[in-house]
């Protein structure tokens, strides 16, 4: 409320001085009803009335945080924060060159630092709330404390709404706010100011030594490197960075910026886990989205846990060539098929290969031609098994599991079947006994699966 009033006031003064262009971006008030408190309807009406008084537009959105909370991973507060930022960013994407201001203040920052200390943190946790999040969310009130904000509101005859949940000292942050900080201020009334000064010194002193590499792959560009026949319902990305001089305690901001470029939305705990993971201390972190760091490689793979209904309809391009080959020619061709199951025996090694310039962009197979047999592509089905070159059989689900292919990709992965609908090729993961069988007619089908467009 104070931030909105001050922002509109500054714009009005600039306009009177002729320093505010009429074509400048408009001010919007964005509010989320979390579905947690009974009075959130009254909060939304307050925001709408405030917007009307200030002559700006209000955007009210709704979420059901208790229903979307991930038990065992989220507290109600962390789930609300994750969903709030996710929806705010989604809203911002609808407006060109949009930036957001949030009203975090000095007391919020002091609470965050104290909470980090109690929870367990390194020097990076002493930086507290970042003045800028994700490059386009700004927190201009971090140098202003709660009492100064209330004084501004009173002097301008502004009303405000109190969040009743902020009174619940069963919530850790509220306990710090109502009991810990007042005790610290008994020792030194300037406690909040000094904690914030420590945060500024930490941000200035820790630096930003990480230099990201130039090659980043995100979302659809990753899927074009895979033998898929349709786009998955989720997003993912791969980022690489130079590890020379990398320090997990001082590199959070650079890692956050890099992950932002591949679409990942992360909190401070996620970023710290990824920083440590890059040097071998931790391989996996799940905080709303999933992040995998491959120790010592400077590579991070990110995968969204939120499914999307927007899946483009794709008709895969499969080029077919029927030719006569001698046994020697056939063996030479098979030897040059570059089966990625051999080059990248595990998903993480394949992911590292995405950052290499020679990654394959087409998938080749050579199968014997026999009578009216028509090979075709489909996706996996329950009970699918492939006959291996050694004579055994294996469930396709077990093949995916062995190579640690993410679950959300498995139903999009191409499976080639013969005229009896039996799998004969799982591109990049498994060849079959059929691929090594000699054709009586010496005729073979040479097929190329092109990447998605």
Total DSSP E strands: 19
The CATH architecture of the largest domain would be 3-Layer(aba) Sandwich
Spans with pLDDT under 50 lasting ≥5 residues?
A: 338-345
- The CATH homologous superfamily of the largest domain is named HUPs
What does this protein structure show overall?
This protein has 16 helices and 19 strands. By secondary structure, it is an alpha+beta fold. It folds into three domains: about 1-205, Rossmann fold (3-Layer(aba) Sandwich); about 210-305, no CATH class; about 320-450, no CATH class. Helix 2 (about 40-55) links the parallel strand 1 (about 30-35) and strand 2.
List the helices and strands and how they pair.
Blueprint: H1 2-16, E1 28-33, H2 40-54, E2 57-62, H3 65-68, H4 76-92, E3 100-101, H5 106-119, E4 132-133, E5 137-138, H6 146-155, H7 172-187, H8 191-206, E6 212-218, H9 220-223, E7 236-241, H10 252-261, H11 268-278, E8 284-287, E9 289-294, E10 299-303, E11 318-324, H12 327-335, H13 340-343, H14 347-354, E12 363-368, E13 376-378, E14 385-387, E15 393-395, H15 396-402, H16 407-410, E16 415-417, E17 423-426, E18 430-431, E19 443-449
Parallel strand pairs: 1-2, 3-5
Antiparallel strand pairs: 4-5, 6-7, 7-10, 8-9, 9-10, 11-19, 12-19, 13-16, 14-15, 16-17, 17-18
